[in-house]
From TrEMBL:
It is found in: Cytoplasm. This is ATP-dependent dethiobiotin synthetase BioD. Substrate binds at residue 41. It comes from Streptomyces himalayensis subsp. himalayensis. The active site is at residue 37.
Length: 249
């Protein structure tokens, strides 16, 4: 895939660190990588944004940002309130295609979820993915509530005839609770797409060299890594109760 769109089931689910892991894995495989952030919100001029964080963690990545708005709001709302031009879907597609002509992989990281409005016409990241004819990777939370938001995101992709590349858990907890452990088996079922990775909580706090060395172990081979969904799920899954109510784990 020349272009991969990265969306989330909501905000603060680990899209940026997952994007950085994807970039690091691709770089380790000798591929050239560009990361495009169509709309950066909640960051003042001159402050580092999401693409800067990807570069810090992943390394030699071409970074591009189309629009920046200071308030941490949906791009359409943030653009309107700041009286700045909104980012247009055609501009996203054009920028991604130009980057794809010069790089092996272009990662387009959205803001918030798939259907967050980009402009006053109601355009979304899904519309950009359609123009690019690009698959969409869904970054999901680990715990309670994630099955609903993941199912809704996947359903929205199918309704628009877009390809869901798979699901990555953007922040896998050090001590997962029962819901998170059960979700490993349930997420691919509700998304009707494979589970393709689990990025550990706190990954972004690791030294960049350590992050880059470990990134491939968090992602499945389809994403350039070595992570095994079946083995990880078997290791983390809760034991099944016996007839007496005891755990078989």
């Amino acid at each position: 895939m020349a272009v991969l769109v990265v969306t989330g089931t909501g905000t603060e689910v680990g899209k940026t660190v997952t994007t950085a892991a994807l970039a690091a894995a691709a770089l380790a495989a000798g591929r050239s990588v560009a990361v495009l952030k169509p709309a950066q919100t909640g960051v003042a001029p001159g402050e580092p944004g999401d693409v800067d964080e990807v570069v810090r963690l992943a390394g030699d990545v071409t970074a591009a940002e189309l629009a920046r708005y200071p308030e941490p709001l949906a791009p359409d709302t943030a653009a309107r309130r700041s009286r700045l031009p909104p980012v247009r879907v055609a501009d996203i597609a054009e920028a991604a295609e130009k980057l794809a002509a010069e790089h092996d992989l272009v990662l387009v990281e959205g803001a918030g979820g798939l259907l967050v409005r980009l402009d006053d016409s109601g355009s979304t990241l899904a519309d950009a993915a359609r123009l690019l004819d690009a698959p969409v990777l869904v970054v999901a939370a680990a715990g309670l509530g994630t099955l609903n938001t993941t199912a809704l995101t996947a359903e929205a992709l199918r309704a628009r005839d877009l390809t869901c590349a798979g699901v990555v858990v953007g922040s896998w907890p050090r001590r997962p609770d029962l819901a998170a452990r059960c979700n490993l088996a349930d997420l691919p079922a509700v998304a009707e797409s494979p589970l393709l990775g689990a990025v550990p909580t706190g990954a972004a706090a690791r030294p960049p060299a350590e992050f880059r060395a470990a990134a491939r172990t968090w992602l499945a081979p389809r994403l350039g890594g070595t992570w095994d969904a079946r083995a990880f799920t078997a290791q983390e899954a809760p034991g099944r109760p016996t007839l007496s109510g005891a755990s078989t784990r």
